[in-house]
Structures are given as C-alpha cells and as structure tokens.
Amino acid sequence: MQVLFPAALDGISSELVDCPSRAWLPAAQEAWDAAQEGSKRRGKRGEVPFPPAAAERALLTATVEGLPLGEQSDVKAPLTGFPVWAWATPDGVELSFSTLSSAVRRRLAATDDPAALAHAEGGWRTPLAVFRFADGLQQLRVTSRTKMPWSDYVVLRETLLDALADRRQPLLARLAEIAGVAAMVASERALPTEFPVLNARLFLAWRGFLESRVAAASATELAAFAQTAWPLFRDDLTTADGLEAALAGDWRADLRTWIVPDERSLTEAIEGYLGVRLFAAPLDRFRTVIRGHVELLEGFATGLRYAAAFGALQGAPLTGEQIVAALALGEHAVAQAGAALPGFALPKSSHDRGPRMADLDMTLESIC
Fold first, then answer.
1. pTM, whole model, 2 decimals?
2. Residues 6+ apart with CB under 8 A from 211
3. DSSP letter for each residue of 209-245
4. Handedness of CA 50, 51, 57, 62 (dihedral sign)
5. CA end-to-end span of the chain, whole Å?
6. Phi, psi of 118 (to 5 degrees)
7. From CA 233, how far away is CA 243, in angstroms rounded?
8. How distant is the alpha carbon of residue 1 from its chain centre?
9. Residue range 72-91, pLDDT digits in tens
10. 343 closest CA partner among 278, 302, 274, 296
11. For the chain, how are helix, strand and coil distributed in percent, rounded to 5?
C-alpha cells in the first residue's frame, strides 16, 4: 500500500506519543459521544462517517467545557489516531496532520523543504483507520454542483505546491500566484486550461485583498476562539491575557514592529505550515475545492492578525514555532466559524501600463 504525506512530517510517529494534545483525547471522546446521544439524524449516502473535522470539533469542545482529561487507555477509535488522518484515494492512501497538535506544529516550524512529499510503500508506521469516500474520490466537489476528476485535482495541487516551493520569489508573491490559481478555479469551476501568470496587477490585487482580510477580522470573535483553543496552544504562545485588547489595537503597527523585521527568518516556518495546508485542503475538512482555497487564504490572514497581537502581548518578536501556532490558530478559528467568506478575484485585464514587478514592495510590511 502506497502512502503519501508531507515530507516535513516523516518520522514524527514517536514524537506524537508525548504530544500534550493527546492528553485531551479521552475528554474529546466523551464530547463526541455526548454529541451523538439522542441524535436521530442518519448520515446521507456517501457521507464520511467520522471526518477529521468532527474529531477536531470534539477536541475543541472538550477544552472549552473543561472536561476531565481521563486516562489514555479509555480512548476509542477513531480518535486514537489523532492528530493523523488517513483516507483512500485512487492513487493510494494520503495522510493529513492536525495543527491542533503542538508536535505537528513544531515539525512544520523546523522544516526547510515545504512542498516535498514523502512516499511510504509499506504503509504508515502506526495503525490508522482509513476513511473511504463513497465514490472512492474518483471526483472532487469543486462546488456543491460541479466536480473535477481526481487526476485534475492532483495536477491542481502540484501546481500550488510548485508555486510555494519557488523561492526565487518573495513569500507574498508566491501567495499571490496561489491566490490567482484559486481564483481561476473558482471562476471556471474546473481545472484551468492555462494558469494565470504572476504580474504586477495580480500581485497588487492580492496584496490589497490580504490587507482587507487581516483588517476585517473581529477582535472579539478571535479572542473568544483563542480562549476556547488555549489548552492546545499554550505551550507555544506565552499568554492569552489581554488578547482581545491586543487584537483590537493597531495591528499594522504591531505587525510592523514584531513580525516584519524577522520576516526573512520566519519565512521557512510559514512555508512549512502552508505546504501542509496546500497538500491537505480541501479534503482534511471535506470542503469543496473552492471553499478549501478560500479558508486557506482567510486562515492565513487571520493568523497574521493573531501573530501581530501575540507579538504585542509578549513585547518580543515571534519564533518560528510561535508564527506556526498563530497561523494554526487562525486556520481553526476560520474553520470552526464556518462563516460565509469572500474569495479572491482576479483583476480585470487592461491595456494600461502597470508598474514593474521589481518596483513593488512584496514584504509583509507592504500590507501595513
């Protein structure tokens, strides 16, 4: 059996045993069982019986309700596999790793090859339950009404990972290319015949969109979610006291002060995090392809807002582990909210002469 997964997490099995997040598994199982009691809703034909997103919701519910941690031996399947998820594809089995796990986040912060994938021919190192989609993932939902073949999805994913891995461009420029591809998929409802070319207009449109999404984040809602998830993040982020005030403060000044000066040293950690997200979305939360891309970009913007606030709280620049934790917090805040979100749209074509790429500021400071 061939297993495919992000190379950054190769060999992580032994580290997961001692991950603090695993102490919450018995409480998460209790939260899941309680949610199912009395439920008469039957799963629709083809519905994933226990998607990874449900396990993450159970874990967050356990933390916010303060359920007792209990004994590890009491945990029942499929939570025993946390934070690793597996599903069958036409090409084999793929693995995804939840960023609610601090062990996973620390591996991502340490990787130097964000887009590399690893193959294991004999299976994963520890037993896992493998989810099997009703149609065998022969097709993926692009929207609720349209689908694309698995082979097209693989091409799309490889294109996005290749864009992330191209270190000839600054990180924001690579994200602009990724956002452009996602926008074209949303427009055509299929794998584009030609992918958009990164140019000044595309980058400026993306930069403006990113700034607007960072600014749009609700300080109250983000602070409330951080309090919910805090038991799973407190090993990496120093404090949540005063977080709402920090989030409501001048995020541009905080980003410029605590993140921008260290952008170069933080880039590899950010790339490592984004590589895993690009590999897993939208399957890790059973979203449509378009919704998966929208949540990925929105989560990145929300994570930057968290990063600026935590920098202000601790009065010091963030480490690689902390920037990954902030981005993961943003990811889960967006995923759990499930709100309607705007997608990035490609700029209209024009014959007017645009600025040169070499003249553009492509650093994080440019959104401040």
1. 0.93
2. 367
3. HHHHHHHH--HHHHHHHHHHHGGGTTTTS---TTHHH
4. positive
5. 48
6. -110, 150
7. 14
8. 27
9. 555 565 677 889 999 999 99
10. 296
11. 55, 10, 35
